[in-house]
Specification:
Blueprint: H1 3-6, H2 10-41, H3 45-52, H4 57-80
Helix pairs in contact: 2-3, 2-4
């Protein structure tokens, strides 16, 4: 079905939310591992916070994940709707 038809269904949006939340969770973990691998495994949490979340960096960190999760959720939900 076309996206314009699917966006009118509540089931579609429930799928988008479920898929998007899982995608954001895993994407955040992978991103933290790539950005701060050595700091995470040495348990230097202050360095992880400084590198990823201080000075308003948390806005960019999470906004990109949520936008990506939403786009991915819409794509997968639309692809799987019949």
């Amino acid at each position: 079905m076309a996206l314009s038809v699917n966006i009118k269904k509540s089931f579609f949006w429930l799928n988008v939310i479920k898929i998007g939340i899982v995608f954001v969770f895993f994407l955040s973990i992978v991103s933290l591992l790539f950005n701060s691998f050595s700091d995470i495994f040495s348990a230097d949490w202050q360095a992880v916070i400084e590198k990823n979340f201080s000075n308003q960096l948390w806005k960019r960190f999470f906004s990109t994940k949520f936008i990506g999760g939403f786009v991915y959720g819409v794509y997968v939900s639309n692809k799987n709707m019949k």
